[in-house]
Amino acid sequence: MAIDQNIISVNMAEMRIAHALAFFRTVLGSCIGVFVYDIKLKIGGLLHLMLPEHPDSDNFNVAKYADSGIPALIEAVCREGANRKNLICKLSGGAKMFSGFSSNSIVDIGSRNQAAVSEKLKELGLRVVASDLGGETGRKILVDLSNGKLTVLHFNVGEKVI
Amino acid sequence: MLKTINIDGEDEGEGLMSATTNQNNIVIDEKHLEYIRVIAQRSAENASTVISKWLKNTVTLRVLNVNMTTLEEIGVNMKLNEDIVFASATELIGDIRGHFLFIFKLEDAFKMTDMVLKKPIGTTLETDELVQSVILETCNIVGSSFSNSLVNMLQINLLPSAPSICCDIGGAIMGNVFLEYASYGEKIFFIDTEYVHEESKIEGYFFILPTPDSIPVLLKRID
C-alpha cells in the first residue's frame, strides 16, 4: 500500500501522535479509528478505540473509550503543536463482525461505537470530512501524515482512499 | 506468560480449588494457572490424536500459554493480526461456559482442504464452501475431543455447540472476540494452543475462552 518506512502501528486501545512523513497503520473490526489532522502543519493523531463509554472508575485506559479517548486525542495533538482550528477528522471501522459469535451483550458494538463517536465529535465541534464506517467486514487502514489520506483495505472488497 | 496475581483462594481438599471472581478481576495464583495448563495440555494431546486420525496426518496441539491479561496486552502480541484468516467458533454449554475459537491463515485453510480431499497441495485457491466445511469440521473434531477430555478428567457436563465460521482479517476478528470477553472485567482469561501440521507447515491457533465464573470448574481436583 505505501512505502514501508516510519509506519507506526496503533494497537487496540492505543493513541499515537506523529508528524509527516510518518504513517499510521491499524486493523479495525468493531473498533473505530479516529484520525485527527492539522492539514497545515501536517501533525496528526490516531485513536484506536474499542468501546463507547468509560467505566465509573478512577483508573482506566483513556484511549479505550470514545468518550474519554477523543478529547484526549485532541489535547495530545494540540500539545504536539497542532492548531485546534485547523483540525479535520476522518473515521473508519465500526463493523458488525462475526455475527455467529456474538452474544446479546455485545451485539453490534460497532454501531454503539459509531453513535458514541458521532456524539462526542459533535460536542467538541470537530469537522468530520470523510468516513468509512459500518458494514460486516474488517478493515486494514493506512494513514499518510504527509497529506492526511486514509487508505482503507477491506478483505474481499478492495482498497479505497478517503 | 503465566501471570502471578494476588492470592485469594483456598485449597478445599477433595473439591474445587478456589478462584475468586468479581466484577472487575479474576484472581488465580500461579500454582493454579499451572494446574490449568496441565489439564489443557492433556486435552490438547487427546485432540491431537483424534484430528491426526481424521486427517491421516500427524497434527500436534500444544498449549502455549494460560493467560490472564488485558485487551491492550493481547493487541500488542496478536498473532495473524494483518493476515486474512478463517475463524471458527464454538459456544460451550454446561458446567463450563465460554467459547472455543480456531484461527487459520487463509493459505493454510486451503492446504487443509487439499489434504482432506486428497488433492495436491496448491489445488484449492478460493474461499468456497468446501474450505468452510473443512475448517468447520476441524473445529468440530478438535473442540469435541478437547471437551470430551475435560468431561472425563473433571467429571463435568460440557457440550460444544455447532461451530460458526467467518473469513476476514485476523486482528479484526480476534479484537471482536476478546472485546466480548473484556465485558466481564479488565483481565481476560484464555488458553492459547498451537495447532501444527509439521509436514505441510500448517499453523493454526486454538483459543479456549471460559467465562470467569467457569474458571473454578477447571480447578476441580483430578486423580
Topology, pairings included?
The complex is a heterodimer of chains A (162) and B (223).
Chain A: E1 7-9, E2 14-19, E3 23-28, E4 32-38, E5 43-49, H1 66-79, E6 87-93, H2 109-124, E7 127-133, E8 139-144, E9 149-154, E10 158-161
Parallel strand pairs in A: 1-3, 6-7
Antiparallel strand pairs in A: 2-5, 3-8, 4-5, 4-6, 8-9, 9-10
Helix pairs in contact in A: 1-2
Chain B: E1 20-21, E2 26-27, H1 30-55, E3 60-69, H2 71-76, E4 84-94, E5 98-105, H3 106-116, H4 129-154, E6 158-160, E7 164-169, H5 170-182, E8 188-197, E9 202-210, H6 215-218
Describe this structure in words.
The complex is a heterodimer of chains A (162) and B (223). Chain A contains 2 helices and 10 strands; from the N terminus they run βββββαβαββββ. In chain A, 19% of the residues lie in helices and 36% in strands. In chain A, the strands form 2 sheets. A 5-stranded mixed β-sheet of chain A has the order 1-3-8-9-10, with no helix packed on it. Chain A has a 5-stranded mixed β-sheet with strand order 2-5-4-6-7, with helices on one face. By secondary structure, chain B is α+β, with helices and mostly antiparallel strands. Chain B is 39% helix and 27% strand. In chain B, strand 4 (84-94) and strand 5 (98-105) form a beta hairpin. The radius of gyration of chain B is 17 Å and the shape is globular. The model of chain B is unreliable at 1-24 (pLDDT under 50). Chain A binds chain B through residues 11-14, 27-31, 50-51, 61, 64, 95, 97-98, 100-103, 105-106, 109, 137-140, 155-156, and chain B through 71-72, 74-76, 78, 81-82, 84, 87, 89, 99, 101, 164-173, 175-177, 179-180, 182-183.
